[in-house]
Write a structure and sequence with these properties.
Chain lengths: 236, 529
């Protein structure tokens, strides 16, 4: 165990969770705790199973073994209380073809009962550099803009835990740095963070703990020296 | 009130989320109400004309059958045959419903609706109602001409009651499958429905040729639960079906909140793929969407053990694809049953077009089924290119498994059609002689080119369609039907097929099949990568 990881009051906890599709386990069992105000990064090479682990931890895939808990209860994404508390941006970008970028965000904000949804959405559009494209349909957005729209949706709503799968994907360097700063700020404000990433700079700026996902053994690595693990070349 | 409680007060419920989404989308819709009304009127008029024509044709067929004397060799009365057709149709509907959900969330809805705290029941109940309504409406429409033709002296009230019964039964089926979906018990629905369809089809084939079974089947329609002619019976039956449908849909609605996002997302992706295939008139993609397996495929490495040459590898892979697809195997059994039922059902056997139509329908069903590997090869041509085979050799290799499977289907149908009349071998021979044409049909259909939506278009009652769409969509079936002309003539003339007729059929099928495959190979070799 390294970094700022603490054992008590975990918001999300996984005990020897085996993740996989069907009956095929994709990586070694995962054990972790994510308390409020704490960030855990999953790293490892492509195909190591990071996305599958994330989907299992948020209840989108059933664990093959082990248990995942949110607070004291087993994770169940069918519970409104879970969806209310957990924001996620996974590898499932899809958009309503007839809704603009702003309308997508307003749908999320109003659906979650955000205070002053119009102002909140306008602020996030600005932060993610989408103000000028706010009234464009998804088909008129670039790949990077659609990615920013998906990420912005996680911030227009209240959440206690934010789960992100490779948030750096298709973002330019400035936006990556801005996102890292934002995530670190929200973490310090009490948000629990769980992310999978290949971006060493993002992981170094945000993560308190880094878990290297591998087929034979998942192990904690020093966040300060996680660059090799992040790029897919784990330290010996 | 705390901030958390206040936020919950402000949250949108499922219906509000749906309304917000549809209002936003409608705000920038380019179609006017007048355009939509005109479209609806055009669709309704086209459907009504089509149904009236179909009903009139079926009624004339019924009158033709009634005016001809009974055939001595016929075995099955129309009641059991109609029951078999109904069971197969219901099993097919259940299988499709199971594959598509029936309740699902499109990828966009899965990404933007399902993570909201709104109750999943509120989000999805409109989807359940939409699917139930669509199934009820389509079933009622399709059953209308059948009831018009089936009833000797149709009355408006009676037909309306029959059509309503079909519609509410379909809605009830949606409710039943949705209820199983909410209980997480859908993994066995499609296999069970398919097994029922296959068993009933096989049993009907056997009953058609075994005299005591045929007599027993003939008695089935007389064993009604209510007295014959009771005026209240149809109304009570429809009311019962409606009540059952309402109860099932209500129970399914109550369980919508139990549906996991993973299931909704999977079904939604399939439904979107299938809908896109229908809209783009790509029946091959529709088949891929409906036949794709969710379970991990079973390994059958032994199939590749005897492989020593490239063409054998292609054939072994085709066989593997076919045996891994229960839908295709079930379709083969139904395909074998269709000609037998057409030829041995009282009434239809008096109508040569019904018999040769049954033969063509059965062979076509079988060809579509065994064309499954060729459709895969067409979608992923890179696999064939890895092997040291020219396009012509690869296409020829893809003929091996379809030819083998079609021989089994055609021979089985032929033997059962001729059983008891001393002409079993002749009918089997006729079926086998048509196999080269239908083998080419299966492979040519699998390699059919995509519809060209970038070329000239034409305006039709169904909307704007690419010119030459018919010529593209019938590729495959064209070779099968053209290659079966001698068989059609033989059946139309009546009596058992002669040796000369079988020889003529074989030579003609070989020639047409070779020509069809040559055209396919020429297109493949001339098409740019």
């Amino acid at each position: 165990m390294t970094g700022r990881r603490v054992e008590a009051d975990a918001l999300l906890s996984a005990d020897a969770v085996a993740a996989g599709h069907g009956d095929v386990q994709v990586c070694a069992p995962v054990t972790l705790r994510v308390p409020p105000g704490h960030a855990v990064a999953l790293v490892g090479p492509n195909g190591a199973g990071k996305s599958t682990v994330l989907q299992t931890l948020v209840g989108l895939l059933p664990p093959l073994a082990g248990a995942v808990r949110f607070g004291a209860d087993p994770v169940d994404e069918r519970q409104a209380s879970f969806r209310r508390a957990v924001a996620q941006v996974l590898d499932d970008e899809a958009f309503f073809p007839s809704l603009t970028a702003r309308e997508h965000l307003l749908l999320t904000a109003r659906g979650h009962g955000t205070t002053d949804p119009d102002a909140t959405v306008a602020a996030e559009l600005d932060l993610f550099g989408l103000t000028e494209r706010a009234d464009a349909l998804p088909t008129a957005l670039s790949s990077g803009q659609r990615r920013r729209l998906a990420l912005a949706a996680a911030f227009v709503r209240p959440a206690r835990l934010l789960v992100l799968d490779e948030p750096e994907r298709r973002l330019d360097t400035d936006m990556r740095r801005a996102l890292a700063a934002r995530l670190a700020r929200d973490r310090d404000g009490g948000l629990a963070l769980l992310l999978a990433s290949h971006d060493a700079e993002l992981v170094a700026a945000v993560a308190d703990d880094v878990l290297l996902i591998a087929e034979d053994e998942c192990r904690w690595v020093d966040p300060a020296a996680a660059a090799d693990a992040v790029t897919g070349h784990p330290p010996p | 009130m705390t901030a958390v409680a206040a936020a919950r007060e402000r949250e949108l419920d499922g219906a509000q989320v749906r309304r917000l989404t549809s209002r936003s989308a409608a705000a920038r819709a380019t179609t006017t109400l007048w355009t939509r009304l005109l479209d609806a009127w055009s669709a309704a008029a086209t459907t009504a004309i089509g149904l009236a024509m179909l009903g009139g044709w079926l009624a004339s067929v019924r009158d033709t059958i009634g005016s001809r004397p009974p055939m001595p060799g016929s075995a099955l009365p129309t009641g059991p045959t109609a029951a078999v057709v109904t069971v197969v149709a219901v099993a097919g509907l259940v299988g499709v419903l199971d594959r598509l959900g029936p309740v699902s969330a499109s990828p966009a809805a899965a990404a933007w609706w399902l993570p909201l705290p709104a109750s999943r029941r509120g989000l999805l109940r409109a989807e359940l109602a939409r699917v139930a309504g669509a199934c009820a409406g389509i079933t009622a429409l399709l059953s209308l001409p059948l009831f018009l033709a089936w009833t000797a002296r149709p009355s408006a009230g009676g037909i309306l009651l029959d059509v309503a019964g079909a519609g509410v039964t379909a809605a009830g089926l949606v409710g039943a499958v949705a209820l199983l979906e909410t209980r997480g018990a859908t993994s066995r629905v499609a296999p069970v429905a398919g097994a029922v369809a296959v068993t009933v089809s096989a049993a009907a084939m056997v009953a058609a040729v075994v005299a005591p079974l045929a007599r027993a089947a003939a008695d089935i329609p007389r064993r009604h639960l209510v007295p014959d002619g009771a005026p209240w019976a149809p109304g009570v039956a429809v009311a019962g079906a409606a009540l059952a449908g309402v109860v099932l849909l209500g129970l399914a609605d109550r369980g919508l909140g139990r549906l996991p996002a993973r299931t909704l997302r999977l079904s939604g992706s399939t439904a979107q793929f299938a809908a896109a295939s229908v809209l783009s008139l790509d029946t091959r993609d529709l088949g891929r969407a409906l036949a794709a397996r969710r379970q991990r495929p079973v390994r059958r490495r032994w199939l590749f053990r005897p492989v020593t040459r490239a063409w054998q590898a292609v054939a072994a892979a085709d066989l593997l694809l076919l045996v891994r697809s229960p839908w295709q195997l079930g379709q083969l059994v139904v395909a074998a049953a269709v000609p037998v039922l057409a030829a041995r059902t009282d009434g239809l056997d008096r109508l040569p077009p019904a018999v040769w139509g049954g033969l063509l329908l059965g062979w076509a069903l079988a060809a579509v089924s065994v064309g499954h590997p060729a459709r895969h090869a067409s979608a992923a041509p890179g696999i064939d290119r890895l092997l040291p085979l020219s396009p012509a050799q690869a296409v020829a290799a893809h003929c091996a498994v379809p030819a083998l499977a079609l021989c089994v289907v055609a021979a089985t149908s032929g033997v059962l059609i001729g059983a008891g009349s001393g002409s079993a071998l002749a009918w089997a021979g006729l079926g086998l002689a048509a196999v080269p044409a239908w083998t080419a049909a299966a492979v040519r259909g699998g390699y059919r080119p995509e519809l060209d939506w970038t070329g000239p278009v034409m305006s039709t009652p169904m909307g704007t369609l690419p010119a030459g769409i018919g010529a593209t969509l019938v590729q495959g079936l064209d070779v099968g039907i053209l290659g079966s002309v001698p068989a059609i003539v033989a059946v139309h003339l009546g009596g058992a097929p002669s040796a000369g007729m079988i020889a003529a059929q074989l030579l003609w099928a070989l020639a047409v099949g070779a020509g069809g495959l040559a055209l396919t190979v020429r297109r493949l070799t001339s098409a740019p990568d």
